[in-house]
């Protein structure tokens, strides 16, 4: 009798483990589907950001500057002058095309850091003062 109760208990325990396992498998599959969906959304958003960056770069090339670039260079230096000064200072090796892209932004930050300025990529008053030294060279 005791043996029979032990066998029944063992069968019930194993059945419970199998049911729990099935629930975990379903949950795992749902999580994997969710991860796949989120990865696809992330890829879509990255493509959208890339497209907007390209559009912004083209807009900047036509002389219509972004707000932050307009504010940073208003009444001071044009994008071409900024690039020329950075090139003369040895911080920029790209074309002087008036497009403030990632290479120019990186050069601005490097220039600012080397000159003891806040390296934020914004060409403000103090950065303009330092860049002006390299325009006549």
Write the layout of secondary structure elements.
Blueprint: H1 2-61, H2 67-73, H3 79-88, H4 102-114, H5 125-135
Helix pairs in contact: 3-5
Task: Describe the structure in your own words.
- There is one protein chain.
- With 137 residues, the protein is mainly α.
- The protein has two domains: 1-64; 67-135, Orthogonal Bundle (Muramoyl-pentapeptide Carboxypeptidase, domain 1).
- 74% of the residues lie in helices and 0% in strands.
- The protein has five helices and no strands.
- The protein has helices at 2-61, 67-73, 79-88, 102-114, 125-135.
Helix content: over 70%
**Structural class assignment:** mainly alpha
Give a short account of the largest sheet. Answer: none
Order of helices and strands: HHHHH
| Strand elements, count | 0
Categorize the overall geometry: rod-shaped
Query: What is the domain tally?
Result: 2
CATH hierarchy, class of the largest domain: Mainly Alpha
Mean pLDDT: 79
Radius of gyration: 30 Å
In short:
This protein has five helices and no strands. The chain has helices spanning 2-61, 67-73, 79-88, 102-114, 125-135. Helix 3 crosses helix 5.
Features of the shown structure:
137 residues, mainly alpha, Muramoyl-pentapeptide Carboxypeptidase, domain 1, 2 domains, 5 helices
């Amino acid at each position: 009798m005791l043996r029979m109760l032990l066998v029944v208990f063992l069968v019930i325990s194993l059945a419970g483990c199998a049911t729990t396992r099935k629930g975990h498998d379903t949950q795992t599959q749902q999580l994997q589907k969710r991860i796949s969906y989120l990865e696809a959304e992330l890829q879509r958003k990255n493509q959208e950001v890339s497209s907007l960056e390209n559009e912004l770069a083209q807009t900047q090339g036509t002389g219509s500057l972004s707000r932050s670039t307009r504010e940073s260079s208003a009444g001071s230096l044009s994008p071409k002058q900024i690039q020329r000064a950075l090139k003369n200072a040895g911080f920029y090796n790209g074309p002087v095309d008036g497009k403030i892209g990632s290479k120019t932004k990186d050069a601005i930050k490097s220039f600012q850091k080397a000159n003891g300025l806040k390296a934020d990529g914004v060409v403000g008053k103090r950065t303009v003062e330092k860049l002006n030294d390299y325009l006549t060279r």
